[in-house]
Request: fold
Amino acid sequence: MKSDEIKNLFEQFEAIACEYAGIECWSARELCSLLGYAKWENFVAVIEKAKEACKHNGEAVSDHFPDVRKMIAMPKGASKEIDNYMLTRYACYLIAQNGDSRKPQIAFAQNYFAIQTRVAELVEKRILEFERVQARARLAETEKTLSGVLYERGVDNKGFAIIRSKGDRALFHLDTALLKRKLGAPDSRPLADFLPTIGIKAKDFAAEMTSVNVQQKNLHGYTAIEREHVDNNNAVRDIKKVERRLVSEEKKINSKK
Reply:
């Protein structure tokens, strides 16, 4: 294909993109002609193949191929309702993969939607990685604060390490060494460097609770503070409770802004 043909197709694909239920979509009726299909019935056959591929890949067909209706004008001012689909980017990708690759429009679409899908995946991955890095940084700050609070109340660095390890056991039902082996983490690296984001947030929340409660309850010494930290980790053991508390905490923070 020539560069001007590619540019023209690119502009056409971009022009017919629309938003449906908050998601970028393409109308099947508009995509049909753009992909070089003169008959809707022939294009429907390709859509059905794409649906099967979607199902085979473990995705919900209704999420990517929602049925919609389209009104068209008829002679003498009448109108007629016809079948249509709103296709997600992933649905368009599957349709292109199952289309007639001899058509230059299909060849273009195969690459266009493959790149679009890959870009979306990379953006999502980057956002998730950013959230994890942010959570890890917050945990480090929280544990630094907790270490200072405990030091003022008779717990040295060795005692803090033991208390933190017992908190891990309460939270994850495994001691720190076993959990590190399970996650493939070297003994020299902190456990939190290898935990999933929800685990990091759970540790952070428990540590923050301990820091606040130790001061409010005026606790001193290793035994009392260890019991407090274990209790707090047990309290956030249930993932659903963690999520509810995190949402509540976020709302409180936003209300103060």
